[in-house]
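Continuing the series of single-chain predictions for the mutant panel. This is the parent chain; the variants come on the following pages.
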Amino acid sequence: MNNISNEKGLISDIQKFSTHDGPGIRTLVFMKGCPIRCLWCSNPETQNHHEEIVFFQKNCIGCGECAEICPLGAIETETFKIDWDICDNCGKCAEICPVNSKKLIGKWYTVSELIKEVEADRIFYRNSDGGVTVSGGEPALQYKFVSSFLKKCQGLNLNTAIETCGYAKWEHLEAIVKYSDLVFFDIKHMDSEIHKNLTGKSNKLILKNAKTVSSIAPVIIRFPIIPGYNDTKKNLEATVSFVKTLKKVEKIELLPYHSLGEYKYKSLGKRYRLRNISLEEGKDIFKHKKLISSYGCKVEIIHSWYTQK
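Parent structure:
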């Protein structure tokens, strides 16, 4: 990390003008790579720590150029679908596609290149007390790059925040937390075995890190509400009881389930494993908010069309 201009990170997307991921108007940086696999993940393109092709078939015009250029013959010549067992994500089909139905997800940035990207919106940060939020994927998976980037941001008087699933070695998480003005910390489920079934990992390391993080940085707990999976009264009360043991929690944010990312799984050649959840089931989130509030916790519902009603 001596020369931050040479440190590189793999980023899946940079979202401008975000208003739900920290104070003010923010630039949201999605790091690519995550150690867990939540059944409801709406950003599956951030899971793997490598560049990969996505295919949005509805955009395909059937020109066939992708099939002609593919060096491995991984693209069908009639439907132009990708044989994911053969594809090595070389990106040649994405380069030639005239309508972006095939795209290469993942771009390597140096710290200096990313700083230049976020500095372009400084006027919006200044006028709204905004800044930069690093999400994912999991930022701690690329802790050297992220810590260098956040340190540079703070040196430029930019407000910094991260969103973490908490599943990381403490020294990796600590490296990015110390340059974060705010930490969004995800809590999925309080039962370790159920958590493992839902995400592929136990929650023991996550809960341990939550306690440590909340002792050194302001924290907002994010709790995705997945009807039928983690929204029982028992789990809600257990989550509140745990959060009340933490030190610097500003509030709990409830994230209502949505299926807006389901189409991404198909575009990546993956199967979406969560059962269909109706909007009627999702409306129980108002009852959940009331229950959590009754324990004296500040709680808000975020990212939901319900909040617009």
